[in-house]
Amino acid sequence: MVYRSISSDPEFPMSIDLQARYRDERLPRYTSYPTAPHFSPAVSDRQYGAWLGSLESGATGSLYLHVPFCRSMCWYCGCHTTITKHDAPIADYLAVLQREIEAVAERLERRLPVRHIHFGGGTPTIMNPDELARLVDLLSARFAIAPEAEIAVEIDPRTLAPAMIAALGRSGVTRASLGVQSFDRVVQRAINRVQTVAQTAAAVDGLRAAGVRGINFDLIYGLPHQTIASCRATVAACLDMRPDRFAVFGYAHVPGFKKHQRMIDEATLPDGVARHAQAEAIADALQAAGYRRIGLDHYAMPSDPMVSAHLDRRLQRNFQGYTTDTSDALLGFGASAIGCLPQGYVQNAVGLGDYAARVGAGTLPTIKGYVLTADDRLRADLIERMMCDFAVDVAAVARRHNADPAAVFRALPRLAALQADGLVDRSGHEVRVADGARHLVRTVASAFDAYLEVPGRTFSRAV
After folding, report:
1. Using DSSP, how many helices (H) and how many strands (E) does the chain show?
2. CB of 316 within 8 A of CB of 340?
3. How far does CA 10 lie from the centroid of its chain?
4. Domain spans of the chain?
5. What average pLDDT values come out for the chain (463 residues) when binned by 10 residues?
6. Are 445 and 379 in contact (CB under 8 A)?
7. Is there a contact between 440 and 22 (Cβ–Cβ < 8 Å)?
8. What pLDDT score was predicted for residue 12?
9. Angle between helices 88-106 and 352-360 in degrees, nearest 10
10. Helix (H, G, I), strand (E, B) or coil at 226
11. pLDDT for the residue numbered 343
């Protein structure tokens, strides 16, 4: 399916001023609901421990391990990471991480069945191959890892050594996500990330030879000095390597929260119109090459399981973005890691020292979280279906949560305004993103958000 955009559809009934206002809105990415700014210290390590112990006997889990180290800082980065030229801090951190894994596993009533494992960062492959092997062995000992489990690792091709490639293969890694962002050298210099096509291709070839069958590329639009032409050239270079999936994100410029982003000259950033044009140029090129567009920002080959999940409306959304993961619990390990259990969300201490001190004291390093209410669960369901399917049957979701559909609609005042402005089509109980407005799905999803306004918090642009 090829999606039309507002900018390319002269019949779309929205003024230029309205287009600009919605495009430039600052909104959550809705990888969770409620979003992280609503987490509070009211959820303690003890409460998290109780939640772990109360997981039902048939529950399944997924694991996220955060390795917050890089060799250099990419100025666009929005992650919690630390720059180090030495290996000792990494080894010290991994020792603490293993203790946290042990502590969490001890609070479970049984070895939790696990179908998805994700190593993120930072640069997880900054650890040495033996350390990776020990971590995977520990996870296998403490959790019931399914034989068909997906094990995914985020990779910086610039620092990926042959020994680590071999270790990834031996450890059963099934999917590698490679950061590309842009191959335009002018853009690369402006974001402090110079990475050649040859480096990336060598990483892809090595990973495939080692048995890592799933390859993902991450691209970014809206970067300094970026143009439509450079976006197309980057996609063309990527297509020669034929990754299975692409994730295409808009750069979120929030220098008030990420001080290193102040190294980027704001005058070189594209405006909302240019950002949207870049995103659609990438989308057009990928779809022309045979990739299916999944949700807001993912693309996959037709044979990919994510396409099947999308077509069957089984697609999910979590802190890693769109996913086929349907686990009952996501356990987050490492500094700043976020977990999700049936009762709510938990987040670990962000600072490395604070994180290590809490684990060293024998406690879980949880510093905040959120207890879900019945209304939260209903709205989270509505938002996830809208973000994944671009449509939601409000009555069907209401019935799943034992709620009155009419009362749910009355609690959505923003929806009427979006419908009047042409972003939303409504037919009975079904709410659908209007044809041509799919790039504004976060705007439509925000109609279901009861906590949209948070003083002092800045989200990324809707496009």
Report:
1. 16, 21
2. no
3. 33
4. 6-29+373-461, 36-332
5. 41 59 82 94 97 96 97 91 95 98 97 97 95 97 97 97 97 97 98 97 98 97 97 98 97 89 94 92 98 95 96 94 95 97 98 98 98 98 97 97 96 92 94 91 95 61 57
6. no
7. yes
8. 47
9. 50
10. coil
11. 98
Whose tokens are 């300094």? That residue is: 224
Residue pair 238/273 in contact by the 8 Å Cβ criterion: no
76 close to 191: Cβ distance less than 8 angstroms? yes
Burial 42-61 (b: 16+ CB within 10 A, else e): ebbbebbbebbeebeeebbb
What secondary structure letter does DSSP report for 40? B
318 contact partners, CB below 8 Å, separation of at least 6: 31, 32, 325, 330, 340
Residue with tokens 């989200």: 459
Cβ neighbors of 10 (< 8 A, separation 6 or more) are: none
Q: Give the whole-angstrom CA distance, residue 68 versus residue 403.
A: 42
> Which CB contacts under 8 angstroms, 24+ apart, belong to 381-387?
382/448, 383/30, 383/33, 383/445, 383/448, 383/449, 384/30, 384/33, 384/316, 384/317, 385/313, 386/431, 386/433, 386/441, 386/444, 386/445, 386/448, 387/30, 387/295, 387/296, 387/317, 387/441, 387/442, 387/445
Report in angstroms the alpha-carbon separations of 192 from 73, 74, 132, 187, 443.
Answer: 7, 5, 27, 9, 31
Q: Where are the alpha helices (DSSP H) in 242-345?
A: 272-288, 305-311
Look-up of token digits 């402005």: 421
Q: Which of 268, 449, 292 is nearest to 375 (CA)?
A: 449
Burial 313-336 (b: 16+ CB within 10 A, else e): eebebbbbbbbbbebbbbbbbbbb
Task: Look at residues 366, 312, 309 and name the one whose alpha carbon lies nearest to residue 343.
Answer: 366
pLDDT of residue 436: 84
CATH assignment, 6-29+373-461: 1.10.10.920
Query: Residues 22, 443: contact at Cβ < 8 Å?
Result: yes
Determine the CATH number of domain 36-332.
3.80.30.20
Question: Which are the contacts of 394, defined by CB distance < 8 A and separation ≥ 6?
Answer: 382, 405, 408, 409, 429, 430, 431
Which 3 state secondary structure label does DSSP give 93?
helix
Euclidean distance between CA atoms 453 and 368, whole angstroms: 20
Both ends of the chain: CA-CA distance in Å? 20
What's the pTM value of the predicted model, to 2 decimals? Answer: 0.92
The residues, any chain, with a CB within 8 Å of residue 29's CB and separated by 6 or more, are 442, 459, 460
Amino acid at 445: A
In this structure, which amino acid lies at residue 165?
I
